[in-house]
Amino acid sequence: MSAPLIAVGGVNRTWDGSDRTGVNAAYAKSVLAAGGVPLILSPLLGSSHAARALAGVDGVLFTGGEDVHPAWYHAEPSPHLFPPSRERDLFELALFAAARQMELPILGICRGIQLINVAMGGTLYQDIPAEYPTAIDHNPTAERHHRTHAVRLEAGSRAEVALGSAPLTVNSFHHQAIRDLAKGLIATGWTEDGLIEAVETVPGTPWLLAVQWHPEEMFGEANAPDGGLFRALVKEASRRESESVDSSAPRDPAGFDRVSGHQGTAAGRSPR
Fold first, then answer.
1. 127-140: per-residue pLDDT in tens?
2. DSSP state, residue 80
3. What is the pLDDT of residues 183-227, one digit of tens each?
4. pTM of the model
5. Catalytic residue among 110, 160, 174, 200, which?
6. Looking at 66, 197, 214, 241, which residue is catalytic?
């Protein structure tokens, strides 16, 4: 069996005066270290090509980046909102819809956990300091691999199985967080102030796990528990790849609800 192909959601940026698209190399290194083959998907593909881009893919990783536009969850923009990317929102909402319909395993990181929650009908705190004052600094000025606060995991959850039961301290670089948890998701990780740090899908539904911190930045730490998240994704993707080899049934994402296939989601909404 070959190494599973993991689609990794990318960003568009202007660097050194040129428009570029790609990902933080730490994401690709983490997928490779876990035994997967990363395939970078640029938002330039657009929502119309999102499903086609997943042909042959065995799992999907939604990465960090811009704020999700609050119009997707029927909220007015906060003055503290960081500039969102309509192009990326549209592409990744369509990518998530197709991935769910294809029953691909999904891992979300930072923006990824927020996008998943919004796509499935949840809402966000647009700015933690303004809307959820807390003594914990969720967006400190620190090196990206520096661990700054503890996270408590639900015993027996996918998150705990992937990360282990030892006390966990994580890095943190976010000013937004889950407010109202989407139907179909369960919270399985929290900071001491009560903010959600990990979610997963309910039993009996396609595999999904997402975290609010940046586990990819720990790829250089040989014994870091964070690598377990990528190994969990690759394991599920390998299982799906094995099953697909044994099945001749075609998978067709066409005609599926653009976001999750359920009522009460972000489907049909458009940022103002």
1. 999 999 998 878 77
2. T
3. 999 999 999 999 999 999 998 999 999 999 999 999 888 889 999
4. 0.88
5. 110
6. 214
**Which residues lie closer than 8 Å to 110 by C-beta, 6 or more apart?**
63, 64, 65, 173, 174, 211, 212, 213, 214
List, in order of start, the domains of the chain with CATH numbers.
5-245 (3.40.50.880)
The two three-digit tokens of residue 163, written as one number: 């990360």
Is 214 a catalytic site residue? yes
Residue type, 71: A
Contact 27, 39 (CB under 8 A): no
Active site (annotated) includes residue 149: no
Considering the candidates 160, 216, 217, 236, report the single residue annotated as catalytic: 216
Taking alpha carbons only, the member of 242, 206, 19, 181 closest to residue 103 is: 206
Indicate if 175 belongs to the active site.
no
pLDDT digits 0-9 by tens, 232-266: 999 999 998 777 666 544 444 444 343 444 434 55
If DSSP codes are grouped into helix, strand and coil, which group holds residue 45?
A: helix
3-class state of residue 232 by DSSP: helix
Mean of the per-residue pLDDT values of the chain = 90
For residue 152, the tally of other CB atoms under 10 A from its CB is 15
